[in-house]
């Protein structure tokens, strides 16, 4: 599991992108990045992303992770895959 496994699509915010992945254990990860001033806590120009983790019961973790790099996201994905 790593960042390259995310499937990206256009975000509803113009110029932003959104990627998701659902793990076999039921967890989900959602990452988004946009241009400066988009309101997202990840910026395409800096290759950083806002990350939201969703438990198997559908509840989101309380707080998103902000300004995560692809390397950090890959590490998070490996840990989630081991849960």
Provide the fold topology.
Blueprint: E1 7-10, E2 17-22, E3 28-33, E4 49-54, E5 65-68, H1 70-82
Antiparallel strand pairs: 1-2, 2-3, 3-4, 4-5
Report the strand count. 5
- C-alpha geometry: globular
The average pLDDT is: 96
Residue stretches low in confidence (pLDDT < 50, at least 5 long) are: none
Supply the number of helical segments: 1
Beta-strand content bin: 25-35%
Radius of gyration in whole Å, from Cα?
A: 12 Å
Count of the domains: 1
Structural write-up:
- The chain has 83 residues and is α+β, with helices and mostly antiparallel strands.
- The protein has one domain.
- The chain has 1 helix and 5 strands; from the N terminus they run E-E-E-E-E-H.
- The chain has one helix at 70-82, and strands at residues 7-10, 17-22, 28-33, 49-54, 65-68.
- Strands 1-2-3-4-5 form a 5-stranded antiparallel β-sheet.
- Strand 1 (7-10) and strand 2 (17-22) form a beta hairpin.
- The longest helix has 13 residues, at 70-82.
- It is globular, with a radius of gyration of 12 Å.
- The two termini are 13 Å apart.
Distinctive features:
alpha+beta; single chain; 83 residues
Short précis:
16% of the residues lie in helices and 31% in strands. It has 83 residues and is of the alpha+beta class. A five-stranded antiparallel sheet has the order 1-2-3-4-5.
